[in-house]
Amino acid sequence: MTNEAVAVGRVLVVDDDMTVRDVVRRYLELAGHEVRLAGDGEAALRMFAEQPPDLVVLDLMLPGIDGLEVCRRLRQRSAVPVVMLTALGEEEDRIAGLQLGADDYVTKPFSPRELALRVTSVLRRSRATLAPPPARTLVDGGLTVDLGARGARLDGADLSLTTREFDLLTFLMSNPGQAFDRAQLLERVWGWEFGDQSTVTVHVRRLREKIEKDSARPTRITTVWGVGYRYDGGAR
């Protein structure tokens, strides 16, 4: 199976602007995706429950139930990848979306072609289990990461990780003791040659809340001041 085939899926596009919905739909369909459209948060949640998509493109500025609340409710029931659409200058909302578990974002006004590429990239990562690597497990004390199954457990309990959180954790655990700056992590984990480095900061914070005994005093993912982050656990 090719990477392109793996990266095609059902996409739910949520935006209250009919023109934006139509343009995004056409570009995603050209990329081979099956697309459904919702104009508000309530419709999006209903359509998600009726037929769960493989990925959601979600505008944060929605009438009624806003995009942040939609993202929060989606995360309560699913780890489906979410690509946010945010207006230029709405940094706080963008960071809030990432904190709620969104996987990626595109800033308006945006290139529909760039959005389609981002969707394909996120889907490819989230579907890596369709073409799994050789069986491999990373272990650090009570933390176990199964690369083939793309699952993680801490002290015997399953961890609920988004696609990006899993990829970031796997990358850091696979390179213990090595410091990476945010730009390097954006390139190696997100596949971005440029972008908002606060994305990395937010995902590191979320990972710490899930894998550290005390996220304020992390012992696994530590901060290297003036550089970035390093995995200091005993991964093997």
UniProtKB/TrEMBL annotation:
InterPro entries: CheY-like_superfamily, OmpR/PhoB-type_DNA-bd, Sig_transdc_resp-reg_C-effctor, Sig_transdc_resp-reg_receiver, WalR-like, WH-like_DNA-bd_sf
GO cellular component: cytosol; protein-DNA complex
Stored Pfam families: Response_reg, Trans_reg_C
Positions of post-translational 4-aspartylphosphate modification: D59
Domain named Response regulatory: residues: 10-123
Chain ranges of the OmpR/PhoB-type domain: 135-233
DNA-binding region: 135-233
Protein name: DNA-binding response OmpR family regulator
GO biological process: regulation of DNA-templated transcription
Superkingdom of this protein's organism: Bacteria
Organism the protein comes from: Umezawaea tangerina
Lineage: Bacteria, Bacillati, Actinomycetota, Actinomycetes, Pseudonocardiales
Key words, A-Z: DNA-binding, Phosphoprotein, Transcription, Transcription regulation, Two-component regulatory system
Gene3D superfamilies referenced in this protein's UniProt entry, alphabetically: 3.40.50.2300, 6.10.250.690, Winged helix-like DNA-binding domain superfamily/Winged helix DNA-binding domain
GO MF terms, alphabetically ordered: phosphorelay response regulator activity; transcription cis-regulatory region binding
